[in-house]
Amino acid sequence: MTDGKSDKSRILDTGTPFLLCEIRRNVAIITLNRPEARNALGDMVTPNLRTIIAQCEADPDVGAFLMTGAGKSFCAGGDIKSLGKPMPGVERTTEESIADLKQKQRTLTAVLVASRKPSVAALPGPAAGAGLSLALACDLRIAARSAFIRTAYVRVGIPGDYGISWLLTRTVGPARARELLLLSEDVTAEQCERIGLVNRVTDDEALFDTAFGIASRLAAGPRHTLGLMKDNLDDAQKLDFLTSLDREAERMYSKPEPKA
Questions:
Q1: In the structure, what pLDDT confidence band is assigned to residue 84 with cuts at 50, 70 and 90?
Q2: pLDDT band for position 92 (50/70/90)?
Q3: Which residues contact 206 (CB under 8 A, 6 or more apart)?
Q4: Cβ–Cβ < 8 Å for 142, 198
Q5: Which of 44, 115, 126, 133 is most exposed, with the fewest beta carbons within 10 Å of its own?
Q6: Model confidence at 2: pLDDT above 50
Q7: What is the mean pLDDT of residues 102-125?
Q8: The domain over range 9-221 is classified in CATH as 1.10.10.10
């Protein structure tokens, strides 16, 4: 049994029609809702996305995240029409622009990576650029058969952001990450599954049910244990074997904090 388990469904106000959020069976279903723009990110979406992720992270009713996109895309990445353009009436130095991007990255993909709540990305269609980073920041990725990924950065002349290099390298290995970033070729869902970039591929019409089934199963699991498992898995990528063994031993005797 989990803490905070609930079968009730409720809709959260995201502050914009371009982003939807529903809590169902302890799963925070967050949907990018700009299908006409392939769910591209931008100032009309990402500030609200950061807020809703933080809100769900702090919500004791939420046991897992499910990220997806409306229509036939997951997320096309940054809105190219506004990419690199300053806000009207706002002039920034290079240093200010760097500091702003650092803060934006730390409050989006970094929050998902750091979360001890399991997360699932459901890809109904293409994930590109920062949209791919968003999917990679989740623990698991489920793709519709018609979906594909594209790193896209080289096509618009930028080296990458939102953790794409770190996330790709740890997901598919350094050689494949270099290939994906430098060549920016389209990679089908089946190819993504073969190289370990997505965990499962489903028929298009079965995508949401499959992804939600996995997310709700995670949300119904022992939350403290799942968080510790994520700690162990993170350690496995940065610590030597003996240190990882010791950390596992310590966590075997870790107890959940008592409820206030």
A1: low
A2: confident
A3: none
A4: yes
A5: 44
A6: no
A7: 97
A8: no
**Domains of the chain, residue spans:** 9-221, 222-260
Left, alpha or beta for 72 (phi > 0: left; psi -120 to 50: alpha)? alpha
CB–CB of 139/120 below 8 Å?
Answer: yes
What type of residue sits at position 3? Answer: D
Give the integer Cα–Cα distance in Å for 96 and 82: 18
HEC assignment per residue over 202-252: ECHHHHHHHHHHHHHHHHCCCHHHHHHHHHHHHHHCCCCHHHHHHHHHHHH
The 3-class SS string of 27-92 reads EEEEEECCHHHCCCECCCCHHHHHHHHHHHHHCCCCCEEEEEECCCCCECCECCCCCCCCCCCCCC
Q: Across the beta sheet with 64-69, what order do the strands follow?
A: 9-12, 19-24, 27-32, 64-69, 119-123, 140-144, 200-202
